[in-house]
UniProtKB/TrEMBL annotation:
It is an enzyme of class 5 (isomerase). Substrate binds at residues 15, 76, 86-87, 158, 192, 215-216, 225-226. GO terms for molecular function: diaminopimelate epimerase activity. The keyword Endoplasmic reticulum does not apply. This is Diaminopimelate epimerase. Its EC number is 5.1.1.7. Belongs to the diaminopimelate epimerase family. SUPFAM superfamilies: Diaminopimelate epimerase-like.
Amino acid sequence: MMDRVFFTKGHGTANDFVILPDPDGELELTPALVAALCDRRRGIGGDGVLRVVRAAKHPEGAGQAGEAEWFMDYWNSDGSIAEMCGNGVRVFARYLVANDLATAGPAGLPVATRAGVMVAVVEADTIRVRMSTPRVYAASTATVGALTVPGVAVDCGNPHLVCGLHDGVRLAGLDLSTAPLVDRALFGAGVNVEFVEPAGDLPGVDRHVRMRVHERGSGETMSCGTGALAVGAVALREAGLSAGSAAVDVLGGRLVITCDEHGAWWLAGPAVLVGSGRVDVAALA
């Protein structure tokens, strides 16, 4: 175990991450270390850890090394491993470019993930990422307290349950301090649960909604990129649109989901690096 580890702190719409540079895969990353780093009182604090490792040097990324140089090794704040993180991949791309580890060409920057290779188009304030095509595949429900809300399951490379609020139930009134109850037979590996309500018309987009999210392994977060993708896909589907865009307002800002005329799905939003330093690993014990 290394005594001191370099890190950078970054966020996308306040979904925040501890970024660990480990190009050659030498860091012994464990669930306990991840949880300690993400502890908001005893550690650095974050919704998860992004380890920056060359795809060829990581057993789960080696098969993608021909398509992408870098693999995003993403861990939730409780130390569990996740397939994908939409805000995380934008922050990851920002880190690569800011540290001269990759260039942001017009064709985009490929990033290997457990859900496949994503392509990030890096702009001054916004990063757009071509995501996996979301797949709506089942009806289900989520229960918060005494409230049970119908929803639909959406596969975005990781599992989501999108639940629209009705009958006067307001998003702000939900208690998401504990995980919603879901169908464990359908979501055996857990699920990210998004609750959604309509927002006012917004110029330039076809749909405009607000969401809150409870992420498996992290609890309620200020934002979830793949969650916004799932919500946007459901919003466009309900509007009968095969292509279009949806603005999704999260607690930490706004994300825009677009399905273009070629059927490609894009997630756009800010990605910010806020500081760097070294952490004493022994002090986290």
